[in-house]
């Protein structure tokens, strides 16, 4: 990919004018016999040699050109490219900087300097070079894209998004820009935006992109589409535990419980210590109403990863259904301890305390759950819990019987 971009800049922006100089290597060599001190001819010989994939000889020709004319920016630029292709990045960078120094208006040299700085990597330097191109020559979709790459490498994700938006504004049909924006929005936690960027793009046989698409569909609740995308992913990335786990989770959400169980079991055959797959298998067993297997799967998941907050809640709520109150309380308390903002666990713990007869703790817990509630339905449930517990904790006084006065 890196080499592709270097060549893209070179050919697309005029670094190596192959079509403009169709002369053969032999023709340039004949010309040089008559004018051996022509830096221009040596530079053009280098172009012809590189066009014929004779990079070592091209390096020699370019070197001769800059020796004859040390201020020949184009030859320095061409030499920098071939040095990079031959693996001499330090010398390539030094030569590219010299090309820009000699001709600050050499757009191609600036672009190649930026890309070579990416390879070092010197992301700050790359940003500076690409910004100079934009400032001096105006907007360009490929340059905005390279800026996005450089900003993302520095963790500046909002700057990355802005540059990708600019690239797409200038070239709205460019597949690579859409895919890059989709990946970025996923990284930023914006599944809807990520889906919008990927929508209609040809994902080909890229299993990673199909996997990303399946996960995005799952995150936004489009489970049938998630199943389809993850089934395609599985065909492209067979024997992949993570794909099987995600596919199994999506199958569970569409009610295909038997296939979900089979798929998750395959994931665990490949990777027996896959805690998330055990947790999902526990959910499947619970929906299949096979409680012993569900309990075992949840416990195995927590044995492998004690940080699975949702699994503590799921195990606790199942134990609560089975009237195993002390065990339920233990697991639900751990879920709340790991994530005090987890409303569902807060409410389940309220119910567990109440079922265990500890109304004081239940009322306190209901107050906490109400404070954590954000959705309207959660607020209503927590409010109802709290009112019921207050009624139970403070029953109305029993009226004393009063004698009816005897009328004379």
How does this model look, in words?
The protein is mainly α and 408 residues long. It has a domain at 1-113: Tetratricopeptide repeat domain (Serine Threonine Protein Phosphatase 5, Tetratricopeptide repeat, Alpha Horseshoe). The protein is built from 23 helices and no strands. It has helices at residues 2-12, 25-34, 39-51, 55-68, 73-85, 89-102, 107-119, 123-137, 141-153, 157-170, 175-187, 191-198, 207-219, 223-236, 241-253, 257-270, 275-287, 291-304, 309-321, 325-338, 343-355, 359-372, 376-393. Helix 5 (73-85) packs parallel to helix 7 and helix 16 (257-270) runs antiparallel to helix 17 (275-287). The protein is elongated.
Strand content: under 5%
Helix content: over 70%
Distance between the termini: 110 Å
What's the overall average pLDDT, rounded?
Answer: 89
The CATH homologous superfamily of one domain is called Tetratricopeptide repeat domain
What is Rg? Answer: 34 Å
Structural class: mainly alpha
Q: Would you identify the CATH architecture of one domain? A: Alpha Horseshoe
* Succession of helices and strands: HHHHHHHHHHHHHHHHHHHHHHH
CATH class of one domain equals Mainly Alpha
How can the largest sheet be summarized?
Answer: none
Total number of strands? 0
